[in-house]
Amino acid sequence: GQANDANTEVNKAIEAMKTNPDNPALLAELQHKINKWSVIYNINSTVTRAMKDLMQGILQKI
Questions:
Q1: pTM over 0.85
Q2: Alpha-carbon torsion, ordered 58, 18, 37, 46, to 10 deg
Q3: Domain limits of the chain?
Q4: Element at 28 (helix H, strand E)
Q5: Which family is this protein grouped under (predicted)?
Q6: Could you say which architecture CATH assigns to the domain 2-61?
Q7: pLDDT (tens digit per residue) in 18-44
């Protein structure tokens, strides 16, 4: 369904970031896909913030 598609898109964007972490376009696309995914899942702001912090932590380690 739409939720699975969004999840797949986010995972693809994360993989792209791993191979090219300095690309600002990929980062913008990843953020867009995470936002879209959040809307689809209706994640509340606390969980979204936790996810965002988690994602930023992952990206900083790459």
A1: no
A2: 10
A3: 2-61
A4: helix 24-41
A5: Belongs to the SctF family.
A6: Up-down Bundle (1.20)
A7: 888 788 888 888 888 888 887 777 655
